[in-house]
Design a protein that fits this description.
The chain is α/β, with parallel strands linked by helices. It folds into 3 domains: 125 residues, Response regulator (Rossmann fold), CATH 3.40.50.2300; 165 residues, Rossmann fold, CATH 3.40.50.300; 58 residues, Homeodomain-like (Arc Repressor Mutant, subunit A), CATH 1.10.10.60. The chain has 20 helices and 14 strands. The protein has a 5-stranded parallel sheet, with helices on both faces. A 5-stranded parallel sheet has the order 7-8-11-6-12. A two-stranded antiparallel sheet has the order 9-10. Helix 2 packs parallel to helix 3 and helix 19 packs across helix 20.
């Protein structure tokens, strides 16, 4: 078994087991040690400490929900899932828990867990599941430094995102990428890099939450020999190694406050020093940052510098949540199901009509990460088969009032097709943008009327978030005012 700071040496994937029962942890370690290098932990704080000590994060994790100090509740386990994915976004988490009611299983998967297994579980079955997760992890469809990334989607939010990338790409100024967890912020950063003349230069990514606070400074700026215990030689940092390329700092909201001033200095004049040196060096890298936090709130709470925020957000890009991307959910479904079916050497599954309706309606609170994990599980359980609404419901964190019906998605409903055909055949003047705008305003007015003006409830009824509804209400009001002014003149 490796020490806390060692990584695998024989090609075996590294597996983190987090369980407060030493008998279970030891039994699993013995049963799985022929296939995995294993490290164990008994609590959430200890598991996070282990991750900070590792040079590379584990590929897989087995996590119990009932951890101290609340072993009879799932709260610590849920928190650990979120924190593990923040520190190591590529990690595959399998929850192994005695608190195996369906609500806990669905919520764990929504947070980003790849699968949920109830205790007791036969080690052979668990081994097969982990082998499958390891296969999917090893060949994740993601961009590398020499491969141009692809943004999947044709919705208006995705077109706006592409336009922002094209607009800001060649500028030397920093870009702040904001978006919910699991929405694909690193892919956007890579798209920015590849849309510039820097595309043949390095793209380096550093997750500020994934390394110990004491190592952030030498990691970013490098260090001299003997600068601290363990510094056996001098080493360049990310700013130096990025050269004329792009340095992507993910989870920038996690950067310790004392280091924010040093980052600000680099952004303002390019100057920095290796830890333990007095020689001033100059960075030429373009800095792109990302966060899923509200940095304005962090500023108000005294956790983030105002001047650094304004420097980082010269340009800002908002990555849309999956719930706002409409039928892009089907494009992502098609992309991932074909990819993982090929990995499993199986035929891809397909969704029954009612399941397609549910897929389109489901908000995917875990965003693209949740969608991808759902596809992985469906591939494993229903390869080459037709997924029914009941099959799909087992994989989604459905609210109590969510109903899966036999209705088809609106775009596939024959009634809509017949109405559109008759409208166009009438040869009356027609403008698609005006028609869609009028339809949108009608739905918004209907939802507000039914909820007696409650914007939050109306947004849920319409399947969009509240901020999106506000912006569409403002756009509709502006259109009405413009039309009124035209009529007056």
């Amino acid at each position: 078994m490796p020490t806390n700071t060692e990584q695998k040496k024989d090609g075996k994937p590294l597996l983190l087991i987090v369980d407060d029962d030493p008998l279970i942890a030891d039994t699993l370690s013995i049963a799985l040690r022929d296939a995995f290098e294993i490290i164990t932990s008994h609590s959430r704080p200890q598991a996070l400490q282990l991750l900070h000590q590792l040079r590379q994060p584990p590929a897989l994790a087995l996590v119990d929900l009932g951890l101290p100090p609340l072993p009879h509740r799932p709260d610590e386990g849920f928190s650990l899932i979120t924190e593990l994915l923040t520190l190591a976004p590529a990690i595959r988490i399998v929850v192994l828990s005695g608190q195996n009611d369906e609500a806990n299983a669905r919520h764990a998967r929504t947070l980003g867990a790849a699968d949920f297994v109830g205790k007791p579980c036969h080690p052979k079955e668990l081994r097969q599941l982990l082998d499958r997760m390891s296969l999917f992890s090893a060949t994740e469809p993601r961009a590398t430094n020499d491969a141009r990334p692809t943004l999947i989607g044709k919705s208006l939010p995705m077109e706006k995102l592409r336009a922002q990338i094209a607009q800001y790409a060649e500028s030397p100024f920093p870009v702040l990428i904001e978006g919910e967890s699991g929405s694909g912020k690193e892919i956007v950063a890579r798209c920015l890099h590849f849309a510039t003349t820097r595309h043949h230069r390095p793209f380096l990514a550093l997750n500020c939450a994934a390394i110990s606070p004491s190592l952030v400074e030498p990691t970013l700026f490098g260090h001299a020999k003997g600068a601290f215990t363990g510094a056996s030689g001098s080493k360049a940092g990310y700013f130096e190694e990025a050269g004329d390329g792009t340095l992507f700092l993910d989870e920038i909201g996690e950067l310790p406050l004392e280091l924010q001033a040093k980052l600000l200095r680099v952004l303002e004049n390019g100057d920095y020093q290796r830890v333990g040196e007095t020689q001033t060096r100059r960075s030429r890298a373009r800095v792109v940052t990302a966060t899923n936090r509200d940095l304005r709130r962090e500023i108000r709470d005294g956790h983030f510098r105002t001047d650094l925020y304004h420097r980082l957000s010269v340009f800002s890009i908002g990555v849309p949540a999956l719930r706002d991307m409409g039928e892009d959910k089907f494009l992502l479904l098609d992309y991932f199901r074909k990819h993982y079916a090929q990995l499993a050497a199986q035929k891809p599954f397909d969704l029954a009509p009612a399941a397609k309706s549910a897929w389109l309606s489901y908000p995917f609170p875990g965003n693209v990460r949740e969608l991808r994990n759902v596809v992985i599980r469906l591939t494993a359980k229903h390869a080459g088969a037709l997924v029914t609404p009941d099959d799909l419901a087992q994989e989604l964190d459905l609210p109590d009032d969510f109903q899966i019906t036999n209705a088809l998605p609106a775009s596939s409903d024959g009634r809509h097709l017949d109405a559109a055909t008759q409208r166009l055949q009438s040869l009356a003047p027609f403008n698609l943008d005006a028609e869609l705008s009028e339809m949108e305003r009608a739905y918004i007015d209907a939802a507000l009327s039914l909820t007696q003006g409650n914007v939050s409830q109306a947004a849920r009824m319409l399947g969009i978030n509240r901020t999106t509804l506000y912006s569409r209400m403002e756009a509709a009001q502006a259109t009405r005012l413009n039309r009124s002014n035209i009529r007056e003149h």
